[in-house]
Amino acid sequence: MCQHGVATRHYAFLSPPLKDSDFFSMSPQGFPSSGLAQGGREDFNATGTLPADAAPATPIAKKAFELASSTLHPSILNHSIRVYQYAEELAQRSDSIFLQSQGKHDLLFAACILHDIGTVSQYDGPQRFEVEGADAAVALLREFGASDEDAHEVWVAIALHTSPGIAERITPLAKLVREAVLMDFGRINEFFPGEPDEVTRLRATFESIWERRDIEQVLGDSVVHQAIRRPGKAPAASWPNNLYRAHLADPEWKGVNKGF
């Protein structure tokens, strides 16, 4: 048991850990000469399953993971899994409704594992990647007869996960996803104040299995790559626009996008 009275989970692999050979070249054929990393990939196929102690062993969860693992860049897939793990930790600590029933847990998993699915070419439509991803997640949920309320909850959580100050207050699921994303990008101490040992344990556990693999650069470049071809995907006052403007200001920059 952890100090909060919640049994500590044992994080089994959702699929085998990713090897160096699983990763895109940082200069894929046909990609802009700026050195940006490709966002989606269709050649990666995770062969693992979803054991019950790692994620919901349900048809919705399995289908969501199949979609994520067959299309997301491996770095973004790892990030999405870590986001789910952090979200579950937050949900345990707050006695969240999203751990109190299997149906709600499915929504939490789907929102986390698919929150960046809009970065892949399959869902590279005219809207910003968050909205395209939210639409894709809802389409998947509809295959399983999800209610309008549940579908909307997941849509909001994904569509607003880059919207600070809004995601944290609009719905409980959006708050969980947003805070879990922030935790994976280095703000974990804000949510576990005064618990440095727990912070170290969680980060070490999650990142030893699902390595970071330059997620900041891969994700930022994925969003910019879409905006280069369709500037309308980076509307003013959005996170994609921050990244796109930073790229336009220094298109030869090779590191993590300065607007990340």
UniProtKB/TrEMBL annotation:
Pfam families: HD
Coiled coil regions, renumbered to chain: none
Alphabetical list of SUPFAM superfamilies matching this protein: HD-domain/PDEase-like (SSF109604)
CDD domains: HDc
Record-annotated HD domain positions: 76-186
Signal peptide (from-to): none
Top-level taxon of origin: Eukaryota
Protein name per Swiss-Prot or TrEMBL: HD domain-containing protein
Species the sequence originates in: Amniculicola lignicola CBS 123094
